[in-house]
Amino acid sequence: MANTQNYVTVTMAIDSTARSVAQLVEAVAPTDRASYQQDTGAGIARILTLLADCSSNTPANVTVIVDSATGTKATGTVTVSGVGTPLDTLTVAGVVFTLRAASGSGTVANPDLVTDIPIGGTSAITAANILSALQRHGITNGLSTWTLSGLVITGVARTPGLWANSVVTLVKSSTALAVSGATFTTGAEATMQSAAAYVRIP
Questions:
Q1: pLDDT (tens digit, 9 = 90+) per residue, 9-26?
Q2: C-alpha 91: how far from its chain's center?
Q3: CB-side neighbour CA atoms (13 Å) of 42
Q4: Where are the chain's structural domains?
Q5: CB neighbour class for 100 (10 Å; exposed up to 12, middle 13-18, buried from 19)
Q6: Residue 117 and residue 97 in contact, taking contact as beta carbons nearer than 8 Å
Q7: What's the pTM?
């Protein structure tokens, strides 16, 4: 840096701040995680956005430098290969969804119960009904986004990190369903961010 006698380097402890936010997010119960992240603006990512914004709003004698590495969101899939049988179950993040007959008597789906999934006349209809249930339930929708392509339902954790690799579990009790694994996978933490402000002394 030119003319170093006219500058002082101010180091901001963003590493420790980011780690503290990450630990707080991990400490929140899965059922509360979605609202927590909404309230905090997604933790680390929000802090970095604010720091980046500072770089365009600081005095002329201050320059803020921030790196921009990010984490990876965990994913998992549920594949439907048949219409399913009444009382088959799919458990996601501890929430038990039950396949039930769409009509008739006995094990008929209760339209007011979000964990009841009506069995469709085709595999595609059953898959769409499963997707709808996952998107309606507060826990499964709060933890992950869900999409359907063909007969494959894909869940993606709403925020990056290792947490979903253990929190979002996948268990099935049905010959018409297959899951990608016991939990979501591929989630990874962000590289700890750092920043420095170089302040020029007039």
A1: 333 444 444 445 445 545
A2: 17
A3: 16
A4: 4-71+190-200, 75-179
A5: buried
A6: yes
A7: 0.64
Burial of 97 (C-beta count, 10 Å sphere; 0-12/13-18/19+):
buried
Q: Could you give the CA distance from residue 100 to residue 84 in angstroms, rounded to a whole number?
A: 9
Amino acid at 184: F
Which residues have CB under 8 Å from 121's CB, separation 6+?
83
Q: Residue 152 has which token pair?
A: 């494959």
Q: How does residue 33 score in pLDDT terms, banded at 50, 70 and 90? A: very low
Distance, in Å, from the CA atom of 75 to the CA atom of 58, rounded to the nearest integer, reads: 39
Residue 53: CB atoms within 10 A of its CB come to 12
Q: Where are the alpha helices (DSSP H) in the chain?
A: 14-27, 30-40, 44-54, 123-136, 138-143, 164-167
Instruction: Show the tokens assigned to 144.
Output: 């992950």
